[in-house]
Amino acid sequence: MKRILCLFLLFMVCFKVLEAQENKPKLVVGIVVDQMRYDYINRYWDRFGDGGFKRMINEGFSNENHHFNYAPTYTGPGHASIYTGTSPANHGIIANDWYDKENKEMVYCAGDKAVNTIGSSSSAGKMSPHRMISSTITDELKLATMRRSKIIGISLKDRGAILPAGHAADLAMWFDSSTGTWISSSYYTQRLPSWLRAFNKSGHTQKHLANNWETLYPIGSYKMSLRDNSPYEGAFEENSDPVFPYDLKKLSEKYGFGLIKSTPFGNTITKDVAKAAIKGEQMGQDPFTDFLAVSFSATDYVGHQYGTYALETEDTYLRLDKDLEDLFNYIDKEIGNENVLYFLTADHGAVVVPAYLQDMKIPSGYFNGGELKAGVKNFLSENYGVGNWVENVSNSQVFLNRSAFQEKNISLSDVEKKLSDYILAFDGVAQTFTGTDMRRLEYRKRFAALLQNGYNNKRSGDVLYTLQPAWTSYGMTGTTHGSVYNYDTHVPMLWYGWKITHGSSVVATGIPDIAATIAALLHINRPNACTGEPIEMLLK
């Protein structure tokens, strides 16, 4: 009798668990488009098909006033912030690379010497999420389902796969430029799954690099871009012009498999491996919600090289639109649109090429970071005597040699203040802040608050500076990002699929709200350092 009762109770528990899971999506697909400015949606709208970006907007919900709430706006912090629901001040990913004050060395946001590459003999797989100090929404899903949910992260960039997948993921995979294949880390597994090994053997990379990169449509129809071979674009080779068509076979002989990352076909192979993962891992096929985090990185490589108004950039987005349509159609067939929750956003935006703005008589400029670094060292030596006063200058931050000042009984806060005033006098610098004030004060004005949200007390520097709008420390061609300004902070925020009703809103929302909203929709805990709030209009 007791045995029958125990079996009955076990059955009831399982039934309740399954019943609870039925009210949740079978799969969440998080899409991050690297370096996608918000205005690209409207700029290319008439060229998009009905099944990609337009499908998400026409059938889903768009938060049109969506911004990052911190700076610097880089890829590593962007992906971490989206999935942790907080800013670098709390999750610790303060840049792609930063100066480690404790070990006195530059470190990479996903670098991990304690793990090994899985899938190739290169060192490209020595990566893990160990530097991210808070949980992600993907971690919380793992916890909520007692590890039954499957979590997969995919990106050309290791950080674009690893940080979204979180600490408890089943697998994160990224592209190895030395082999043209997808690899992982011993942090996740000791052997690539059979479906990924088969995908690597299929020659997807080689197939795309054997062809030319031609414009998707007749080149004369690209009306939202500058002419081909504008002076604001970067070329692959020193004595060549950035013009269509690009002979990828010839270029790959010089640049290797990594060339594909700087073409729209880098997004295509990302989409194809995502489809293979869904099938190979049987995602969305049981009662427990799975999570696929996909980051399309080719847009960033193309944007950096060609800029925001280049034909190459427009063509890349038109092709990405078709890749999204193909992915959506595949998921429709395998799982069903009504069972899948999608969101799409970006990890940062990008500035219009300053040289182009200057030709348009719009204020902009180029900042010489090397001159600032040399000036800072000279200034400190003139004021405090010859010495090793500076340990590092990076990410618009100065890291002082604190022990050197302490040995001389020199007040660090006084040094910070004097150095802050000195840096402010540089042409192109907009604002300066001291680390002491970042730790002690609470800033409410937008730009200062963004810097403070990006300031981690243990990892960030002693003096911070921002540049004036549309000023960059970059080359004369192509674009970059990282600032506090709208062109870097304003990104798309699209929701689509399971329980998402059609609509749009210009009510302000922020990057940390994404993870909080997913947690509310899935009825699970928010990430442990989450500072965002659920977007209420999506929960009605």
Query: What is the number of E strands?
Result: 22
Global shape = globular
Enumerate how many helices there are, as a single number.
21
Largest sheet: 10 strands, mixed
Task: Indicate the percent of residues in helices.
Answer: 25-40%
Radius of gyration: 24 Å
Strand content: 15-25%
Distance between the termini: 47 Å
Strand neighbour order, sheet with most strands: 6-9-8-7-12-1-13-20-2-21
Please give a structural write-up.
With 540 residues, this protein is α/β, with parallel strands linked by helices. 38% of the residues lie in helices and 16% in strands. It contains 21 helices and 22 strands. Strands 6-9-8-7-12-1-13-20-2-21 form a ten-stranded mixed beta sheet, sandwiched between helices. Strand 7, helix 7 and strand 8 form a beta-alpha-beta unit. Helix 4 packs parallel to helix 21 (512-522) and helix 11 runs parallel beside helix 13 (311-334). The model is unreliable at 5-20 (pLDDT under 50).
